[in-house]
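Structure first, sequence second, as always.
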């Protein structure tokens, strides 16, 4: 290498460094993403369904990309605290959000003021859905969805419907049932799923429309009956249980909890596409499908456009329910 060439290279390097400093840009070009650990914020407590799902994804991404993906639990305010942190994070691909419909759909209809908006995120993929189901105490005189609707119409206000709290999926699914079936069931909010489940078994409340895994034990021991599932198709684990849509004569009824992965708005498209691809590749593998099934989850997947369209439809559905019922979070 001649001296003239060396001087030229040095001059270019100095010019690049000077320009970077003047523009506030890093003088060194970093390696391809990810070159440091990536954080997946789960705005719920450790041990919850979202947490378990987040750890499955973190394991998959870590193996595929050779970099550590870690779950950070930031619970509180119906998922708003963790979601706000991600909405305000730098959109560089190193902070992600995995959560339920609250942050993306329902919370901004439930709360008078919100610290972020749904469009503060780039949605990457809808990962999985968990079906809600119509479950009644064993002493309720109804063995089908239609019988329950008929009983509720004949006895307005006599049945109590439990949920884990105002604005939760169980509450909104109950309101959807009440709205579509034109029945009067009194909503009884609890502080969490456990006390609601306990009182359903004891008969102090008679109805829930909530996540199936939480109630399998009650159905198994005969304390409660599973009348219908909230998906559009029957479930593999409960092939003899009809959908609420078909068994109740309620066209379009669907009540599910779903979980989506997102990043702060403005995250590089390459990062979003990579995570979408890796998630779909994982879902195609039998071992990952088995792990989801162990959580009673149904894989969703699809493109980023599919996720946006899905969330758009869910927003319209639950806005109607929340508005009609006048639901307001405390």
């Amino acid at each position: 290498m001649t001296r003239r060439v060396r001087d030229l290279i040095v001059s270019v390097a100095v010019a690049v460094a000077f320009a970077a400093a003047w523009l506030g840009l890093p003088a060194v070009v970093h390696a391809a993403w990810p070159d440091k650990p990536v954080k997946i914020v789960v705005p719920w407590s450790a041990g919850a369904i979202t947490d378990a799902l987040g750890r499955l994804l973190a394991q998959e991404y870590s193996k595929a990309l050779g970099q550590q993906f870690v779950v950070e639990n930031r619970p509180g305010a119906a998922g708003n605290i963790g979601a706000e942190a991600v909405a305000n994070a730098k959109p560089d691909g190193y902070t992600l959000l995995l959560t339920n419909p609250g942050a993306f759909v329902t919370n901004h209809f439930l709360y008078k003021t919100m610290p972020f908006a749904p469009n503060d995120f780039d949605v990457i993929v809808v990962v999985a859905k968990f079906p809600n189901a119509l479950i009644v105490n064993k002493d309720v005189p109804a063995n089908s969805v239609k019988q329950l609707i008929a009983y509720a119409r004949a006895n307005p206000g006599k049945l109590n419907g439990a949920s884990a709290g105002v604005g939760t999926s169980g509450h909104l699914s109950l309101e959807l049932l009440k709205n579509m079936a034109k029945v009067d069931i009194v909503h009884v909010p609890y502080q969490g799923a456990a006390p609601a489940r306990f009182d359903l078994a004891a008969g102090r409340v008679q109805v829930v429309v909530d996540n199936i895994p939480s109630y399998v034990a009650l159905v198994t021991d005969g304390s409660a009956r599973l009348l219908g599932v909230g998906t559009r198709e029957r479930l593999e684990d409960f092939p003899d249980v009809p959908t609420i849509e078909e068994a109740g004569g309620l066209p379009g009824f669907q009540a599910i909890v779903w979980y989506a992965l997102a990043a702060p708005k403005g995250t590089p498209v390459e990062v979003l596409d990579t995570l979408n691809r890796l998630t779909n590749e994982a879902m195609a593998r039998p071992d990952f499908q088995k792990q989801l099934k162990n959580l009673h989850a149904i894989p969703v997947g699809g493109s980023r456009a599919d996720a946006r369209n899905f969330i758009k439809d869910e927003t319209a559905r639950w806005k109607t329910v929340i508005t009609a019922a006048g639901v307001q979070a405390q």
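Margin note: The chain has two domains: 38-129+257-325, 131-248.
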